[in-house]
Amino acid sequence: MILGASLLTARGVPAVGEFELRTCMAMLMMDRLGGGGSFTELQALDFTRGHVEMGHDGPAHLAISARRPLLRGLGVYHGKRGWGVSVEFDVRHGPVTLFGVIQRRDGSFTLLTAEGRTGEGPLPRIGNTTSRVDLGCDPGEWVDAWSASGIAHHWALGTGPRAADVRAVADLMGLEYVHLTV
C-alpha cells in the first residue's frame, strides 16, 4: 500500500494513510504550489541539536527526496499488526513548509503553515520519511504551539518557502489562515 501510494503521490495524485482526507487536501495543494507534499507527523524532538524529526512510513512524495529512496521491509508496520514494505528517505535539504488543514467545530477550515529548514544528520532506519526540521526556535515550544493550533496529527511537508502561496490560496477561497511562528 505505502509503495503504491508513494508512486501515486509523486505523480501528483496524493494518497494518504490512515484515511486522513484533510492531509490529502494539503498534499494536493502543496504539490500544485510546486513544493511536493509528503504525508507527515511528529516523530521525535532533538533538544540538543534544536530540531524536530518529522515523517511517516509513507506515503512519501518521491520527487522531493534528498537522495534515492530506500524500500525497507518491516516486521512491525508503523506500530500496527502486520508487516510490509515502507519507503525511507528524507526531504531535500533546505527551506521547507509544513502545511495542514484544520477543521473547526463549526465545520469551517483553517489553513496552517510553518516554515523551517531540513538538514543533514543521523536519522533512524525505520522505514519512514524522516526529516530533521529546524524551525528556528526551541523544539518543545514549537511543538506546543503547533499542537495548540488545533491541527490533527498529520500534515504535508513540502520543499521551499510556500507560506505566502498558501496564504494567497486561503484568501482566494475565503478561508482562515494561520502562519505559526514561535
* CATH architecture classification name: Alpha-Beta Barrel
Tally of alpha and pi helices: 4
Global geometry: globular
**Uncertain residue ranges:** none
Report the CATH topology name: L-fucose Isomerase, Chain A, domain 3
The strands making up the biggest β-sheet line up spatially as 1-2-7-6-5-8
| Mean pLDDT figure | 90
End-to-end distance:
36 Å
Q: Give a quick account of the main beta sheet: strands, pairing sense, barrel closure.
A: 6 strands, antiparallel, barrel
Broad structural category: alpha+beta
The proportion of strand residues reads: 25-35%
Give a description of the structure:
This protein is of the alpha+beta class and about 180 residues long. It has a single domain, classed as Alpha-Beta Barrel (L-fucose Isomerase, Chain A, domain 3), CATH 3.20.14. It is about 25% helix and about 35% strand. The chain contains 4 helices and 9 strands. A hairpin with a 5-residue loop joins strand 5 (about 95-105) and strand 6. The model has no long low-confidence stretch (mean pLDDT about 90).
